[in-house]
Amino acid sequence: MSSQPDLNLLERAGRYSDVDAPKLAGATYTPRDFAMFVAQQMVRVAQLPQQGPIRILDPAVGNGALLEALLACLPEASHARLEVWGYDTNPEAVAIATARIGRDFPAVSLHIERKDFLQHVLALKRGGTLFSTLEQAPFHLVIANPPYVRTQILGAGQAQELAQAFGLTGRVDLYYPFLLGISRVLAPEGVTGIITSNRFMTTRSGQAVRRALLSQFHIIQAWDLGDTKLFDAAVLPSVLLAKGPGALAYPRPQDIAFSTIYETREAAALVANDALAALACDDDTIVAIADGRRFHVRHGTLDNGGNAEGVWRVATAATDTWLATVEAHTWNSFRRIGKIRVGVKSTADKVFVRHDWDSLPEGRPELLRPLLTRHHARRYSAVTPVNARHVKQILYPHVSVDGKRGVVDLAQYPKSRRYLEQHRDVLEARTYVIEAGRNWFELWVPQEPAAWPRPKLVFPDISDKPVFWIDTGGAVVNGECYWLYADHDEDADLLWLALAVANSTFIEAFYDHKFNNKLYAGRRRFITQYVEQFPLPDPGRAETQDIIAMVKRIHAATPSLEADRMAAELDERVWQVFGLGEEVAR
Asked: In sequence order, what DSSP letters do the residues of 162-177 get, joined into one string?
């Protein structure tokens, strides 16, 4: 049984009771209403043992809000059978959670300890355990809000071990192994409710996690809670409700319930107290909440394109019909044109990227090239930034030699060499460049030097509306933007066709139907894995040829009122070429 609660700790728990008090190691404490939502969903589907102990775990217990909510949702008559476990690496959080739950639920058997859940899971993987025999028994209920931090902060050794243990690659979040670790301690018919960042649903690094979740859990329902701001921290949350690996046959993705809720500017049809209450509304409903925000609620099933690692999206009858119409009028996708690349990354921008090269006493280095950044973003044709500090050039020491990327001979560029030598200590501190067999003065990600003079489609990573333009001036693209050029000269017009499609309101609707991955304030992520799937109509059609001709005229006339007029007409034509009228858009 738990010890007597420390009431002094409970008085201090106020600073842990809301999300404005962050957990150590990147975790964020769960607001009470959100905790109750997860707990209620778990109890709704749980089939608990009729006799004997009922084992409950929170592997990242924090201030105990999730455990408290779950215990409050269980029948009081069951409390004497509850064995409640909680782990956290923060000793103060452990003390507060122990005092809080011990006070409110004195009948339960309580064990909240300062331990690392991931170390326990790794020990199980090795065939041993760090924990007691009692703790090794599976749990009937696991509720969790794992920490949201990169594995890199753990140190290379532990991060590598976690990656190997769970089949993870690349830059992954700490909650990935938490998610998969829970599957190893959950009873065969047990139920888990997990609050996570929604990033795993859509990112490349989440591919292995998506595959593992579908194979290691019997997922019942998922909620993408988008930009509801249920946490003050910059986390877009989601919730997974699942049963253990011993449940009935794993459901097909199309049998898993999936709901999304994202802020919108559209007129509301209903009113709810808050975002969680809005989830009770029917599919495709716009709901206003008390603080004035409006949300688009979607209910359907999970669609991953038939690929275990595919991006998760909500599928409804309406969205499937809409996308089927687009598919019927699609010839190919943006990936047909060429590879979408991120811009250059120097990892030493203060040395390589400046706006004040003319002020250097020894004169401008010879290797300067114009640099496109997010400050140049404008639809169709780049804008020159008003602020002179945003007009930057990059010292670019890379060339193409016999079709392969190489580096310049600095001896031939004395001003550039002297400038780089002045900053040699900073550049050589980038040990990863040297260890990769590169020269100390190279950019970390230089991309292809021979490609810069080619016409290229450029766009920023994040924006609320699509902003794509074509550069024909040979500029280098900065790492906050992406770019695409035609692999084959005969496909040059496809790049212009892509410009027309990418800047349309049609592509906004396509993005929201296909991916629906938004950040706060309706901003979208225009990243490779999305943009490469943008559709292209048949270039052989007369309507498509008209679109290509018009977008070239718009590019040449931007900025002007005439360009704006043509852009409005072009937008309508893009809808039509995909078999849709704009009134069917959303």
From this structure: HHHHHT--SS-BTHHH
Beta carbons of 240 and 192 less than 8 angstroms apart: yes
Q: What is the DSSP letter of 282?
A: P
Q: How confident is the model at residue 82 (pLDDT cuts 50, 70, 90)?
A: very high
- Which residues are CB-neighbours of 417 under 8 A, at least 6 positions away? 410, 411
Mean pLDDT of all residues belonging to the chain: 88
Return the structure tokens found at 53.
């102990």
Residue range 406-412: average pLDDT?
Answer: 96
To 5 degrees, how large is the angle CA 69–CA 71–CA 72? Answer: 65
Q: What is the DSSP string of 197-256?
A: EGGGGTSGGGHHHHHHHHHHSEEEEEEE-TT--SSSSS--EEEEEEE-TTSSSPPPGGGS
pLDDT band at residue 131 under the 50/70/90 scheme: low
**By the 8 A CB rule, do 536 and 331 touch?**
yes
Q: What does the pLDDT average to over 496-516?
A: 93
Q: Exposed (0-12), middle (13-18) or buried (19+): which is 52, by Cβ within 10 Å?
A: exposed
Element spanning 195, H or E? strand 186-197
**What is the Cα–Cα distance from 338 to 10, expressed in whole angstroms?**
59
Highest CATH level, class, for 7-251: alpha beta
- Tens of pLDDT, residue by residue over 359-376, are 999 999 999 999 999 999
Nearest to 89 by CA among 141, 139, 138, 158: 158
For residue 113, the SS3 value is strand
- As a whole number of angstroms, the distance between CA 106 and CA 85 comes to 14
pTM above 0.85, yes or no: no
Does position 88 have pLDDT exceeding 80, yes or no?
Answer: yes
CB atoms within 10 A of CB 367: 23
Please list the residues that pair with 192 across neighbouring strands.
Answer: 142, 242
pLDDT confidence tier of residue 202, bands split at 50, 70 and 90? confident
Who has greater pLDDT, 292 or 166?
A: 292
Distance between terminal CA atoms of the chain? 56
Angle at which helices 65-73 and 32-45 pack, to 10 degrees?
40
And the tokens for 190?
């047990």
Of 80 and 204, the structure prediction assigns the larger pLDDT to: 80
Sketch the domain layout of the chain as residue ranges. Answer: 7-251, 258-315, 319-338+488-586, 341-485
pLDDT, mean of residues 297-309: 92
Predicted pLDDT of residue 470: 98
Contacts (Cβ under 8 Å, ≥6 apart) of 97: 61, 62, 63, 64, 67, 86, 88, 112
Q: Are 86 and 61 in contact (CB under 8 A)?
A: yes
Whose tokens are 């498509």? That residue is: 544
Mean pLDDT value across residues 72-97: 95
Pairing relation of β-strands 524-525 and 481-484?
unpaired
- C-alpha torsion 573→579→584→586, nearest 10: -80
What are the distances in angstroms from CA 309 to CA 202, 251, 260, 312? 10, 16, 20, 9
Contacts of 225 (CB under 8 A, 6+ apart): 198, 236, 237, 238, 239, 261, 275
